Amino acid sequence: MQTMKLEGFEQNLPDEMSISVIMEKIPSQHKWVNFTYKAIGVIAGEASEDNEVKKIHEDNGHEQFLFSGLKLKLFEDECESYYHNLMSPKPGCFVVADEMDDPDKMPVPYLVSLSFDEVHAYLEGDEHVYAVEIPPELYKWTEAFILSHYVAIKKTKRKLKNWKAQPQENSPVQLKGSSNSRSHY
Fold first, then answer.
1. pLDDT band per the 50, 70, 90 thresholds, residue 167
2. What percent of the chain is predicted at pLDDT more than 70?
3. Using CB atoms within 10 A of its CB, is residue 75 exposed (0-12), middle (13-18) or buried (19+)?
4. Better pLDDT: 32 or 50
5. How far apart are CA 110 and CA 39, in angstroms?
6. Nearest residue to 67 via CA among 26, 27, 18
7. Could you give the C-alpha distances from 101 to 67, 81, 93, 104, in angstroms and in order?
8. Domain limits of the chain?
9. Residue 161 — very low, low, confident or very high, per pLDDT cuts 50/70/90?
10. Of 81, 100, 106, 101, nearest to 91 (Cα)?
11. CA distance 25 to 61
12. Which of 15, 10, 38 lies closest to 2 in space, CA to CA?
């Protein structure tokens, strides 16, 4: 894990970090499916470049798998979404996974994001998204990234115009002898 100084924010922060996702496989009581799956955590700083899947724990039919080789990227134009995520009551990482055709096969994570906006787009596309707790290292890194790149813009309410008080340029022309400006055919 790379150490970061937060004094002054002049240093170059990395815009991506290697991560791994922990998925859990649980026997199901449902008659149509044998297992249920969920993401239970994200580990920051895993340096494996290969996309590997390793079983890391097994107990009474519950199995946990580590999916490594993923990268979490931060983008300057998503800072407002990252900010709202960190300021929410429960900041989180969002894991997007491929849903398999066979319900007994584990979904494969392929993206991790901290942006509400990005993940919302995946949800609208019917992708499988899991929310997990954000690790402290990712929280600090994202916080430093936001402080280095985000400038909040004060949003103001648009003022309504008084349309009656202004002269109307495109008002219909009154025809002589007609009370209505529209001509009827």
1. low
2. 81
3. middle
4. 32
5. 12
6. 18
7. 19, 32, 25, 9
8. 16-149
9. confident
10. 81
11. 8
12. 15
The string over 152-177, giving b where at least 16 C-beta atoms fall within 10 Å of a residue's C-beta and e elsewhere, is eeeeeeeeeeeeeeeeeeeeeeeeee
Token digits for 80?
A: 């407002």
Instruction: Express each pLDDT in 60-96 by its tens digit.
Output: 889 999 999 999 999 999 999 999 999 999 999 999 9
Q: Whose structure tokens read 């022309």?
A: 173
* Strand order across the beta sheet in which 35-44 lies: 35-44, 16-27, 62-73, 53-59
Three-class DSSP category at 61: coil
